[in-house]
């Protein structure tokens, strides 16, 4: 594979990646194995070899008699990766003899395992270690902060292993903690078979950690079940363009995204979206103007919110308090209850802009609740199907703006729109509310959404939840084509012909 990216350096971004040639949407930019992978700092106990959660009992490694590992049959064979390496095992075995290291110490310090494994790389993989040490750490901002104190436990643990001999090394542990905090990617831990329960992991990917941030990225990053990270271009990129990855949740408002970046990554984002109080015209953080009741007010400075319509200015505290009340209310409602979510959306729609992130989250939750209800009930109602369809369609234009090009959330939304269209059309046709021709119109409409979903899902790694959805969607595409052929046969059997609608005609299920 020819190199698709090159590393550049600037004062603002540090080391970052740019496209080394023109790249097409969906093109693979880089593939990366983890330098280290391990539990988060507040993780529950996991097997040191395969990272499966250890719920009630565990064994210790036969060789070192220190590392807690899976009981019974041992680690499942389907997880090929073994993280308790030979050299680590020998290291533990040695400490067992010289410093009476015991399994309980390891159990109590599972949150420090990732840091320990990173430090052990210093000797086992000096080249990668040198690269790791070059990563951004923001050490000065962290010194004397609560996070510095929090990491004291890890420093003490590493000290007891005899890995450090002077004060200077303590700051090395802090530096490793910082490099992990600032640069790690969230990784799904392996789930316990049948139960599905897993512990979240964090991984350091040396190439991918050089991706610069923008609140509207131009890449799509996925990590498969073997912990391999793949980064694709989510849109066409020109040679020399900066390659951006969005470290934050694109469906959160600017103040929440900025907070997340400040706390976790130690920088203030200054991207186009962050500088635009309308968030690219989505009004994702805006409220309905208390004065004109038709315009939206957005925060224009620390002190002030402005109405885009009547131009009236409001004190920050006044609008902030209103938004906070809506947020507090969302925290306490039952997010699995259809009625509570509907009521929340009804009430908050009178106060916040239609695409406010709180409303979007409620919309996503409600669409999920309705999807489960439709799948569960033997005879789901048309009303239920129409409502779910409407909710998914409300999400789509926001996703098109904030996650342009390829995005998993958008692919899932498109897929769900297709599911609703097909279910609803079948129901209408079965109850003779639409003719064969009407049914065909609906199925062709659904096919458009499914095709777009598939175009995005194709790049997902096979062994990931999105990859599994891709396989399912492909299966449904075949079924949809078969249904369409049957409906066409039915139309022909009646001696009629099917004429597809012109693009502007609107199928009936859309309202
Ligand atoms: Zn295991
Ligand atoms: Zn061992
Ligand atoms: Zn930003
Ligand atoms: Zn106004």
TrEMBL record:
Ranges where the SET domain occurs: 1-248
Pfam families membership: SET
Protein's UniProt name: SET domain-containing protein
UniProt source species: Chilo suppressalis (Asiatic rice borer moth)
